[in-house]
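User: For my dataset I need records formatted as: sequence, then structure tokens, nothing else. Please produce one.
Assistant:
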Amino acid sequence: LKDMAPGNYAFKFTRGSFDKVECLADGRDMNDRVLLVNTDIDTSLSIAGWKDDYPQKPKPYTASPQVTVMDTAFYIPQLHSTRRIWLYLPKNYYQTTQTYPVLYMQDGQNLFNEQTAFAGEWGIDECLDTLSQKLGKYCIVVGIDNSGDKRMSEYSPYTIASGKIGKDSVKGEGAAYVDFIVHTLKPYIDQHYRTQKGPYYTYIAGSSMGAVISYYAAMKYPNIFGAAGIFSPAFWLYSPQQLKPDVSANFKPVYYFYAGGKESATMIGDMDAVIKNLDTYPSHIIRRSVYPPGIHKEKYWRDEFPAFYNWLMQLY
């Protein structure tokens, strides 16, 4: 590989696709390999096994009793498709008449249930069960499944140019997806559940491309989303101008940013460039968190989520 920029590179070997990815010698998943590039390197690597050589063991169902599937095929008129929607209700929901703030999260299949998660679940339900009692503050969480093969398109607010992630360009359908959350899903949730209304009590979060669309949603609809959790955002796919807020001077950015030190070579720099733009607004609340050993994986987002939730619950 020639002309690689200095930095950390995370990678794995596959035989063409991730169902044929390398693994440990006993078939277990392995962490990304990480290679620090700061000069010419000649390295030799060994592969212990291939995932497709080991029979799949059934994944356990790990969602807590507070989690239900609200709908297996909730209609998205803006995209002419349907989607599974997960719902976490606090433990005391049916014992009280109180209202609750709501956190909307992307990649719903990875939030609560190991059985549906691609690379490990976040454990949002167990985390909130514990922290809610400790803090005395409760929250409803709405998890929206990604669409699988159209995930990149639906989570991208702008068209991604050809050559960025493949030979073909990726159509940006993120604006329509965010409109779905704001104009279709949120009104339904507010009508059927005891929610607190207004941006002080409505939040959005996601990781990687899910972080990109969450960042965009809070920027496009500051009157709807009062805060956003941005975990390992894939900002490298976009130009600085696309990521720069195009909103009024009285815009109040409220963002929690996280990145791992062993993700892509540009992850932290790209994130800091966005933070710098947000810092120019006279009124802003920005939390920046970097975990030096962190890689681009659910485990690290799961570990960071409690800090984000603590920060979120202290805001208002």
